[in-house]
Amino acid sequence: MASAETLDVGAEMRCVMRTLMDGEYEAFPPHDLLRSVWRLVPSFAGNEQQDAHEFMRFLLDRLRKELSSGKHAGSQTNGLKGGLSPTSPKTPQGKCEQDDGVTGDKIMEIFGGVAVTTVTCMKCERSSERREPFMDLSLPIPPVVGKNGSIEEGEGPNGEATLQQCLAAFVRNETLSGHGRYFCDGCGKVQSATKSTRIAKLPPVLCLHLKRFTWKGHAMRTKLTHDVDFPLDDLDLAPYCETNGEAMYDLVAVVTHHGLNAGSGHYTACAREFTAEGNSDWQHFNDDDVNSLTAEEVRTGQGYIFLYARK
Ligand SMILES: [Zn+2]
């Protein structure tokens, strides 16, 4: 039996991609891939419901590790590259781009962005900045009420929050006070401060994850079941960026969680297929059921993970 270090998740992933591309099966169970992951992360094993976001992050981190080790050097033209790398990387446009040091890393070249957090002392106004690469952004769902309420008004068609409001909540300035104060080098002591976050570099494929689940230790406890409206086309990221520039994205896939709480329920995914004529069709992946669905149907349901591709 292979040791954890010699397990080849990339090869299993490649096998899944090839089987999908062959088109022989409408659906098939990726047991070998799953078993490899279970061996590497025993807490994923079994039939308990797991967090799709945590699983995806593990998978991407593992693929990064394997690719950087040279494990797949001989297979780049043999399936994995076709499945996992952008075949025609889009040239970054606009100013919302800065050198980030993530080049040469295939996974980061696709999903990697950079966020910048600025903390400003409320006493002397000295600022400090921290830039951090990200593979996805975890967004809060802002509490919203109806039109006459005192909290933020939901901007969705039925008064629900929108993904744009979640992004706005992510970049909203917050005050660090009380136990959250920080040490200001300018003042030489602990001070209250304001903290702001912006996106400094956008990736070709932006992964957005909604903080639907609250945790207690390793156990998921509750789920925010609020609907969040999201655009299929023309999500404009410019308002959340450090600098101005074109930053339009279209949705290519969404993972939805069905169920009232975190301990049970079911995940399904919708993915977009672009046609040669420039149109697109949506497919719904629900275990071994794969069905077409309309754009409107994609927007119903409680989206959990969103993948947006740069236009
Ligand atoms: Zn200060």
From TrEMBL:
Q: Name one Pfam family in it.
A: UCH
Q: Entry's SUPFAM superfamilies? A: Cysteine proteinases (SSF54001)
InterPro entries per record: Papain-like_cys_pep_sf, Peptidase_C19_UCH, Ub_carboxyl-term_hydrolase, USP, USP_CS
- USP domain location: 1-311
Tell me its family. Belongs to the peptidase C19 family.
UniProt protein name: USP domain-containing protein
Extract the ranges annotated as region (Disordered).
Answer: 69-99
User: What Gene3D superfamilies does the record point to?
Assistant: Cysteine proteinases (3.90.70.10)
What are the protein's GO molecular function terms?
A: cysteine-type deubiquitinase activity
Supply the source organism for this entry: Ostreococcus lucimarinus (strain CCE9901)
Q: Where is the composition biased (Polar residues)?
A: 74-91
GO:BP terms for this protein? protein deubiquitination
PROSITE patterns from the entry? USP_2, USP_3
